[in-house]
Amino acid sequence: MISVSSPLVLVGAGNMGGAMLNGWLAAGTDPAAIVVIDPNPSDAMSLRLASARVRLESAAPEGLVAGILMLAVKPQIMDQVVAGLTGLVGPETVTLSIAAGKTIAYFEQRLGGAIVRSIPNTPAMVGRGITGAVANAAVSSEARTQIDQLLSVCGPVEWVEDEAQIDAITAVSGSGPAYVFYLVECMAEAGRKCGLPADLAMRLARATVAGAGELMHQSPDGASILRQNVTSPNGTTAAALAVLMADDGMQPLFDKALSAAANRSRELAG
To answer: Is residue 103 within 8 Å of 47, Cβ to Cβ?
Structure first.
């Protein structure tokens, strides 16, 4: 069971917020300690909240002060959302953001107090995510432990002391699942061009990436060792890797891509 400062207020019950909520409930968090604020929850989420007896509000109710205020809305609408939440923040409130780009300073200026900025990723929806997090000086060790427990329901949490690293974390793991999905698309398309039916190529690529990910999850070996283990000298895998690992192969492309993602994260801080 997760013990948290009550009430635990979740603003936004979309994919990521919903994943966190489901994790909290599965971990035994008291539904009576949770308040969800979302003006347009999906039908499925509305049913989930009703069945779990979690309080749902369309806007911040008057008189409610959050113990932990978790912001799970897109950075593009954060300005308008935060403007309606100031009444929820008291002297003991810890604000936890999972929005890309929005800095600790951004929330300090608008809400004040203890702030944790974090960036999870979409595998959190199946309990296999990973989250990077950083806290300001107002966050106590007890509050940090509570936040770690809340985020950990969807996977491990990596804390950093330098907030600038959150933009890089966003580029690597926050946006990273999309790179993997696109890798599957590219593998399937290349397989089609090699003569496979498109649907078979997609099934092969999808199962291969999913299986390789699970192997890496279960194996104590690092990624480079796993790669070497499957690469026979002068074999088919080695022939493909000679292209992918060339000076103009995947590494410089990923360098450029992740730099673009990190720069965009910094731009969203406005």
So the answer is: no
